[in-house]
Amino acid sequence: MRAPTIDAALVRALVAEQPGNLLVREGRLAAPIDFGQTAVGDPACDLALAWQWCDAGGRAALREALGTDEDEWRRGAGWALWKAVITLDEPDREAAAVRTLDQLGIDARPARTPRGAQAIEGGQAIR
Hints:
Blueprint: E1 11-13, E2 22-25, E3 28-32, E4 39-41, H1 49-53, H2 56-66, H3 70-87, H4 94-103, E5 119-121, E6 124-126
Antiparallel strand pairs: 1-4, 2-3, 5-6
Helix pairs in contact: 3-4
């Protein structure tokens, strides 16, 4: 995924906009509650929630409401990809990571080998 470099000044970004860190009231974002990872950086990192929380229609509405340009939107998708990949192997976060990747158009459903079976690759059992 490619996106141009940031032309704007770096700003304060929430960074930890995961579902457990945001309060929602009546289906709308009410407030962030975790500022532990607030940092100066790319404001597009906060757009990752568009793929973490929203379906295609929700993303379109969010993008229109924010007036986000194509470059910032693509960087936001990149942040969502990064956040999903780094949590994919955490059992309590795997489902959310897979859903985010699915929203990005990436099939990341884990391959499951039945109990007692061995995966075969190139004629050799993988142990």
